[in-house]
Specification:
Structural class: alpha/beta
Helix content: 40-55%
Strand order of the largest sheet: 2-1-3-4-5-6
Radius of gyration: 26 Å
Largest sheet: 6 strands, parallel
Number of helices: 21
CATH topology of the largest domain: Rossmann fold
CATH architecture of the largest domain: 3-Layer(aba) Sandwich
Number of domains: 4
C-alpha cells in the first residue's frame, strides 16, 4: 500500500479511528521520515475533503452492496453476495446492507456519506423518495449501480425516479439501448456470472440426470395468447401481427418489431400508430409498458413446448418447484419434479446434469447466469440462440444452440429435441462440448471476471 492510499484510509475512517484511539499513532506512522511535510499537508487536505479526497474515494473507498432481498428464490441475493466476495478478492472494501435485517428505515445512515459505489440487484431502493419529494440517494455521493435482469419496461416507475449518477447494468444489449432511449439513463451490458466456479467437475458418464431445467412454469400461456389474438379488438389484432412477427424474426428485439408493426396498416386501412395515438418515444414507452407481458408469455409457450417434446421423446427432464404441478404433462413419468431451490443451491444442481436446458425469457442479445452456472459445473448447455450467444459461442463446440422455430413444427419431433437426444447417447461428444464450455466460462463468465469489468466502469477520476 502506498502512502497516499494509507493517508486516504486515515482520512476516510478518522472518526472511527479517533473513537478507537488509533488515529494519532496512524498519523505518526504516516508522516515518519517525511522531512518535507508533504504527507502531512496531503492528509490535512484529505481531512477537509478536498479534490484529492473525492478522487481517492473512487479508487479506494468502500463499495456498498445491498443484500437480503429474497426475490426469485434468493437467486438475486446470491448474485449480490458472489459479486461482493469477488470484489473483496480484488482488494476492495465491501460493506453489506442487509434489507432483511435492517429494512428501509436504516437507509438514512447513508445520507451525507460518500462511497466508491452503491450496488443493488434488481433493486427498488434507488427510487426511494423522502417526504419532501427528493431522492434519498441524491444525498449520497458515489456511483449508484443497479443490475436489472428483466425487460426495462417492468422497472419504468423506478427509472423515472432514478437518482443522479445512476448506472443500470443489463444482461441484454437491447435492454441497455432501450434504457438509454426511453428513460435517458446510462446503461451498459454486463450480465450476471456463474458461481462458484468448479475446477474439477463430475464425469459426464457418472451424471444421473439426462436433462435439467431451472425455471418456473406459468400456467396456460398458449391459451391466453390465443384468446388475446382471437379477441377481435384492436389490441388483439395488433398482438396477433406482433406475435407472428416475433416468431418470424426471432433474433430481433420485440420493441424493434413492435415499431415495425406500428408503421404498417391495420385491417381497416389505418396506420397502427395512429390507431393507438403513438407519435413520440414517450407514447411508445407507455404503450409498450401496457403490453410488455406478451413476449414473456411467448417465451413460456416455447419453454412448455420444448419440455413437453423432450418427455414425449422419452427423455427424462428434471425440473424444480410446485409451479410444474400445473403443467399439462405433470403426470408424465419422464417429468421429474423436485422441490424448489433457494439461492446458491440452484447452481449445484448442474453438477448432476448431462445437459442443462435453457430457454431465454425473450432475451435477444443477451446472456444469463444459467448458462454460466451450467458450464462451470460441467454440464452441456442447450439453449435457444441470442445474438450475443452466437457471437461468443460456437454450436456443437462449447454449447448446443438452437433456433426456437424448431419448436413451431407440428409434425414429428422438433429438430432441437432430436439433437439433445443424440448428444445424450454420445458420451465422448458430451465430454468434449462440456470441457470446452467449462474452459470458456472459467475464462469469461465468473464473478471474479465480472468484478473486474464492473470496476473498469467506475470513474477513475
Amino acid at each position: 500500500m502506498d502512502w497516499k492510499q494509507r493517508a486516504f484510509e486515515i482520512a476516510y475512517y478518522h472518526e472511527k479511528m479517533i473513537e478507537e484511539g488509533t488515529f494519532d499513532q496512524a498519523v505518526i506512522d504516516l508522516v515518519a521520515g517525511d522531512t518535507e511535510g508533504e504527507r502531512e499537508r496531503f492528509l490535512e487536505g484529505l481531512l477537509k475533503e478536498d479534490d484529492n479526497y473525492h478522487e481517492l474515494v473512487k479508487q479506494y473507498g468502500p463499495i456498498v452492496i445491498f443484500v437480503g432481498d429474497m426475490l426469485c428464490y434468493g437467486v438475486i441475493d446470491n448474485f449480490a453476495r458472489c459479486l461482493g466476495d469477488a470484489l473483496e478478492r480484488l482488494g476492495r472494501v465491501v460493506l453489506y446492507y442487509d434489507l432483511g435485517e435492517n429494512g428501509e428505515e436504516g437507509l438514512a445512515e447513508f445520507a451525507g456519506k460518500e462511497y466508491a459505489a452503491l450496488i443493488g440487484m434488481q433493486s427498488y431502493l434507488f427510487s426511494i423518495r423522502l417526504k419532501d419529494g427528493s431522492a434519498l440517494f441524491d444525498k449520497v455521493r458515489g456511483k449508484k449501480i443497479n443490475f436489472v435482469f428483466d425487460h426495462p419496461a417492468y422497472f419504468r416507475n423506478h427509472f423515472f425516479k432514478a437518482p443522479a449518477d445512476y448506472l443500470v447494468l443489463t444482461p441484454d444489449r437491447n435492454y441497455a439501448e432501450y434504457i438509454k432511449r426511453y428513460y435517458k439513463l446510462d446503461a451498459r451490458f454486463l450480465p450476471p456470472a456463474g458461481a462458484p466456479p468448479v475446477e474439477e467437475v463430475m464425469d459426464q458418464k457418472a451424471r444421473p440426470y439426462s436433462v435439467t431445467f431451472l425455471g418456473s412454469y406459468l400456467d396456460g400461456m398458449e391459451e391466453k395468447l390465443t384468446e388475446l389474438r382471437r379477441s377481435g379488438d384492436d389490441i388483439g389484432t395488433l398482438a396477433d401481427v406482433w406475435i407472428e412477427r416475433m416468431k418470424a424474426k426471432l433474433p430481433e428485439a420485440p420493441e424493434v418489431l413492435l415499431w415495425e408493426v406500428l408503421d404498417e396498416k391495420s385491417p381497416d386501412g389505418r396506420i397502427w400508430k395512429d390507431v393507438f395515438e403513438i407519435s413520440t418515444d414517450s407514447d411508445f414507452e407507455e404503450f409498450y409498458a401496457d403490453i410488455r407481458w406478451i413476449p414473456l408469455m411467448l417465451a413460456h409457450v416455447y419453454r412448455e413446448r420444448v419440455i413437453d417434446a423432450l418427455i414425449r421423446e422419452g427423455i427424462p427432464v428434471q425440473v424444480y418447484g410446485d409451479t410444474w404441478k400445473k403443467a399439462p404433462f405433470y403426470e408424465q413419468i419422464n417429468l421429474i419434479v423436485s422441490p424448489e431451490l433457494i439461492g446458491a443451491e440452484a447452481s449445484k444442481e448442474y453438477d448432476t446434469a448431462r445437459v442443462a436446458l435453457n430457454v431465454m425469457t425473450w432475451h435477444k442479445d443477451g446472456f444469463t447466469e444459467r448458462l454460466a452456472n451450467a458450464m462451470l459445473r460441467g454440464a452441456v448447455v442447450a439453449t435457444d440462440e441470442t445474438k450475443y450467444v452466437r457471437e461468443n459461442f460456437t454450436d456443437e463446440e462449447d454449447m448446443v444452440i438452437f433456433p426456437l422455430h424448431d419448436l413451431d413444427e407440428t409434425d414429428g419431433t422438433p429438430e432441437c429435441v432430436k439433437r439433445i437426444k443424440d448428444i445424450l447417447s454420445d458420451d465422448e461428444r458430451r465430454e468434449r462440448i462440456a470441457a470446452a464450455g467449462h474452459k470458456k466460462a472459467m475464462e469469461s463468465h465468473t464473478w471474479d471476471v465480472r468484478a473486474r469489468q464492473l470496476l473498469a466502469l467506475l470513474p477513475a477520476k
